[in-house]
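Holo prediction — adenosine-5'-triphosphate.
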Amino acid sequence: MSVLVLGSANLDLVYDVDRIPAPGETVLARGFASFPGGKGNNQAIAAARCGADVRFVVALGRDASGDRLAEEARRAGIDLRDRRCDAPTGTAVIYVDRGAENSIVVDSGANALLTDLTAAERDDIADADVLVLQLETPLDTVAEAVRTARAGATRVVLNAAPSADLPPGLLGDADVLVVNEHEAAALAGLPAGADERSLLAVLTDRGAAAIITLGAAGALVGVPGAAPVLVPGHRVEAVDTTGAGDTFVGALAAALDRSGDRTPASLVDAAAFATAAAAIAVRRKGAVPSIPTLEEVLDFRG
Ligand code: ATP
């Protein structure tokens, strides 16, 4: 049993400021800290903390940020399959003002160079039980990874985030699509705020199971041809929701990998596990630091 995550890693550079600078303005920061981030990295760490045996295919620069991300991923128990590229490691520069409003600039850097899978990377995909993908790496690579998984028995969890125009057929080729409400509306071609059951019906019509995460309300799980199931959210005091979606996806992959079962009921069980993991994450600050371990999730569920 194993999970292969193919995706992005960034170093998040977070500046606390009194106010976000206007064009031409310089402000002094009140504080600064840097954290590992990127959807691929966060989801790989979440799957590993939730008990899965995880490999992570990622493109990093030959720089100190790349070394740090690699070291932290290995410390989380991840079997890292990193490519080192002639581009800087991806970064996100984040200003957070006193009202918790933020302003973010992302440089994809090396993540944009994760193209043309190598034979070893394709073998890793074929060997895995569950493949986890997001859309912060080139879409052609995502499509190639899905095709490689489909040629064997690897199950594909596609987190279609951030929103992007997907190549035709990609959605139907995934086994499980995971999106939040905004991404679901964009993919379904319906207005933001459309009823979530209508969104789910459009998404499952493409042939794959789909999960729409609903923030504090939990997650709606749909399997083609069956009635949707609402997995209710847990009532917790939300301190910081950053990384809740990534925790959900990584925990879901770990639960699917552990059960090895492909029935609709096992997808609902895995979504319930992921909803508990994500609820723990929102009670704590930060993205990676807030991701719980398997023991914590089992304790929380009682
Ligand atoms: P983010 O971008 O903040 O990481 P997202 O928009 O991708 O998140 P959400 O639907 O907001 O995804 O959250 C993912 C999951 O996290 C939800 O399905 C739910 O299980 C859990 N969650 C999020 N917010 C809360 C909350 N306030 N209370 C309890 N659980 C929450």
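READOUT: The pocket of adenosine-5'-triphosphate is lined by residues 180, 213-216, 218-219, 233-234, 236, 238, 241-246, 248, 275, 278-279, 282 (CB under 6 Å).
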